[in-house]
Amino acid sequence: METDTAAHTSVLSRFGYALSDPTRARILLALREAPAYPSDLADLIGVSRQSLSNHLACLRGCGLVASVPEGRRSRYELADARLGHALGDLLGVVLAVDPEACADSGQKGCC
């Protein structure tokens, strides 16, 4: 079975780019727990609504989150439930390889 290495590389690069920013990573982890409205996400993460909007646009562009219209508001969720499982698996692997990964980061709420 031949794989399309270029396409796979592109997909993983987009995922890596999305995770490369701590704010985007926190958004993905928050949405892993439950769908949310942008204003609630901004408050939870501690960023301005404008900043959050920019990060959500990036995550939508990467195909990782989806906007669900609800009247005059939009709720955000992970684009696919498997993404939540993938994030959990990725956290598990990182912590298995380097149990001190979060302790060394100095970031509040790293993991």
UniProtKB/TrEMBL annotation:
InterPro entries cross-referenced by the UniProt entry: ArsR-like_HTH, HTH_ArsR_DNA-bd_dom, HTH_Metal-responsive_Reg, WH-like_DNA-bd_sf, WH_DNA-bd_sf
SUPFAM superfamilies: Winged helix' DNA-binding domain
PROSITE patterns reported in the protein's UniProt record: HTH_ARSR_2
Chain ranges of the HTH arsR-type domain: 4-98
Name of the featured protein: Metalloregulator ArsR/SmtB family transcription factor
